[in-house]
Amino acid sequence: MFCGIVETTAKVVKIEKEGGNVHFTLTCPFATELKIDQSVAHDGVCLTVVRLNGAEYTVTAMKETLDRSNLGEWKVGTEVNVERSMIMNGRLDGHIVQGHVDQTAVCTEVQENEGSWYFTFKYKADADMRKRGYITVDKGSVTVNGTSLTVCNPTEDTFQVSIIPYTFDNTNFHNIKVGTIVNIEFDIIGKYIARICQNVI
Q: What are residue 158's DSSP bridge partners?
């Protein structure tokens, strides 16, 4: 479990394909503190550390993960938001994030606003997905590339987020442009409520 507060960014240094799986080797400031089997969120995707080599570590993504996320877009040199799992006796600074990406979205607009930025994202939406809680609500929470953010101006298939300078500088939001594909995870509480409502009605 995570809280969507990005610790730092990692850089992809190697990509290896093995059957339907892909092994990504990355480097980041806390790599030497990691352990085998440890969970780390990468652009919001929970992946398990399978190999360590000094300042580098390797994680493996299977087909299901590749199909639902933007990991298939990664290349050597890609900058990735990373967060280690939440410590249960710490503060929950963001919101409850599982690291289970629901789908991808596309950036459709970037607006600078007196030192901050508004990013608009569009995602696939239909009646079935809305019933399952794959929606955003005004002032609700959403995770974009592993970053816990507050939704503004949601529609049936778009939402905006406002990014402050610190987040812009210390995550990979400074690389997001119109057309960039990002990972999104909808609020787990909303998904549970949607499921309960289906069973009650």
A: 122
Give every CB contact of residue 68 below 8 A, 6+ residues apart in sequence. 101, 102, 103, 104
Q: What is the pLDDT of residues 148-192, one digit of tens each?
A: 999 999 999 999 999 999 999 999 999 999 999 999 999 888 888
Give the C-alpha distances (Å, rounded to integers) separating 136 from 127, 128, 132, 161: 14, 15, 12, 11
Other CB atoms within 10 Å distance of the CB of residue 183: 25
Q: Output the 3-class SS for 83-113.
A: EECCCCCCCCCCCCECCCCCEEEEEEEEEEE
* Bridging pattern class, strands 103-113 and 158-163: unpaired
- Name 195's Cβ contacts closer than 8 Å, sequence gap at least 6: 132, 133
CA–CA gap between residue 36 and residue 51 (Å, rounded): 6
For residue 188, the model assigns a pLDDT of 86
Answer whether residue 24 shows pLDDT above 80.
Answer: yes
Both structure tokens of 5: 């507060």
Dump pLDDT digits (tens) for 40-80.
Answer: 999 999 999 999 999 999 999 999 999 999 999 999 999 99
For residue 39, what is the enclosing H or E element?
strand 39-42
Identify residue 136 by its one-letter amino acid code: T
CA distance linking residue 101 with residue 42, whole number of Å? 10
